[in-house]
Design a protein that fits this description.
Layout: H1 27-35, H2 44-52, H3 57-68, E1 74-75, H4 76-83, H5 87-105, E2 113-116, E3 124-127, H6 130-140
Antiparallel strand pairs: 1-3, 2-3
Helix pairs in contact: 3-4, 3-6
Length: 156
């Protein structure tokens, strides 16, 4: 090495382990689980309260369509074709409904079930069981055989 150069060497001993830099990775899952509300069976009174709250038309149309075909999955595209909402707006409607479920109903489960890709395309699908469909049809329109037109008056 030529003259006039100074080399400084330092070493931290013992070297820190990778675990020293990990900050409680399991807390995220624990916090998310703690925030989820209980799963509570929907009743006729709950469904009536849902309509009385004037939730998004997206939610009402979803249950309307699903109730006309219980135990069958309905794609988000079909719901969007009835509501006329953009995909992002529809997603926002469903996201906002999560807060309604938590704060107005004290539960985490909507009156419909969800299953991604259930109909063979990459989208969210929705369904209601016979019990919900029966209560919903009785409440919204006893003769509900087709999907209601958005904006039309629905007898109560």
């Amino acid at each position: 090495m030529p003259e006039g150069y100074i080399i400084t060497v330092s070493q931290v001993w013992p070297t820190p382990a990778a675990e020293d830099f990990v900050v409680a990775p399991t807390r995220v899952a624990t916090a998310a689980a703690a925030q989820a509300g209980p799963v509570v069976e929907w009743t006729q009174d709950d469904l009536e309260a849902l309509v009385a709250l004037k939730v998004s038309q997206t939610i009402l149309v979803t249950v309307d369509i699903c109730s006309s075909r219980p135990d069958e999955f309905v794609g988000g595209d079909e719901i969007r074709s009835v509501t006329g909402r953009a995909a992002g707006s529809q997603n926002g409607d469903f996201g906002g409904f999560g807060a309604t479920l938590k704060y107005k109903f004290g539960r985490s489960n909507p009156p419909f079930s969800l299953k991604y890709g259930a109909g063979g395309t990459d989208q969210q699908y929705y369904s209601v069981d016979q019990s919900i469909a029966s209560m919903w049809r009785e409440m919204r329109r006893p003769d509900l055989a087709t999907v209601p037109v958005l904006g039309a008056d629905v007898p109560s």
